[in-house]
Amino acid sequence: MIFLDAAATTPVRREVLEAMWPYLTGEFGNPSSHHSLGEAAANALSGARAAVAKALGCRPGEITFTSGGTEADNLAVKGIALARRAADPALNRVVISAIEHPAVEESALYLQRVHGFEVDVVPVDRHGVVTAEALRAVLSSATALVSIMYANNEIGTVQPVRQLAEVAAELGVPFHTDAVQAAGWLPIGVKELGVDALSISGHKLGAPKGSGVLYAKGRLRFEPLVHGGGQERGRRSGTENVAGAVALATALTLAHAGQSELAGCVSELRDAFIRTVLEAVPGAMLTGHPSQRLPSVASFCFPGTSGESVLLELERLGVVCSSGSACAAGSDAPSPVLLALGIEPEVAHTAVRFSFDSTVTSAELEQAAEAVAAAVGSVQGLGRR
């Protein structure tokens, strides 16, 4: 079986398992406990925090461990907006893009529904790019926060985050980016990106599910969502997942070390795969930006088919992929991301996403491309009967 759904999750790396194993077994202490087991856990947590901070180019105190990217996004969007409005009641607007992950979109809509915020949505162009001009047009003196993802999880489009963050900074507005898909493939130095907050999820990097990180710059205040014993400097109460933090830190360090070379190699494989599919499948449409995209994502629409039918046929042929975001599983509605690009609903229903991990080979992608041509041809043939 060829696994091409790495944007949904990745297998846990052996080095990560080995690093976290002691904290699942003998070193099982609570890092808040004042005895040797607790101190060992606290030291491991501090080490993990320092390793994540090193990869991001920030201070350890600016790192908050969470249960994943969704919680990190929620903490950033809700927490920063609520804290900013508490300090200045005039700050009652949040800005997001039209293609945000549901963790950001739903957080913004929660602020609107429950707390009376206004949500300003920045449109994207036909490739899914937010321009500086489009962002500047929706910003105002009442904006509490801008949240625009670094790289889209469905179409792979990479945003000009540095440029967008500079636009927000012109009005003194904090800028958060969801870097869940970008981490491991793109540079994530927070100073270079110019962001005030950034979210990461461990299971996209080779760590187990259930670990995440929110970076929040310096004295940027945010209201905690989880209250209790005041762990994580009062930002996220609850006994810390020490093994998860160690796992994420190990996975991020490994990914960061080889990021540039690996991204270049996988980009070449991705481009060859895209060319082969477009040549082999008449009418196939690449979605997302043709070059300004993640090395690991190739997404298409196949007009005249059903995306779900193509997926089933591909799995029968030994290729596992997806029709879009795993977070939208079970939904019959066409992808809001594709609709935001101006793609017609009936075409959006034909979407298929292929996403690769660091171990993908050219032979696997050649075989997968052949399977795509066969699967689409088979589904189109059934539709003509």
UniProtKB/TrEMBL annotation:
It catalyses: (sulfur carrier)-H + L-cysteine = (sulfur carrier)-SH + L-alanine. Its EC number is 2.8.1.7. Keywords: Iron, Iron-sulfur, Metal-binding, Pyridoxal phosphate, Transferase. Its cofactor is pyridoxal 5'-phosphate. Signal peptide: none annotated. It holds the Pfam family Aminotran_5. The keyword Nuclease does not apply. SUPFAM superfamilies: PLP-dependent transferases. PROSITE patterns: AA_TRANSFER_CLASS_5. The keyword Iron-sulfur applies. Residues 2-367 form the Aminotransferase class V domain. Belongs to the class-V pyridoxal-phosphate-dependent aminotransferase family. NifS/IscS subfamily. This is cysteine desulfurase.
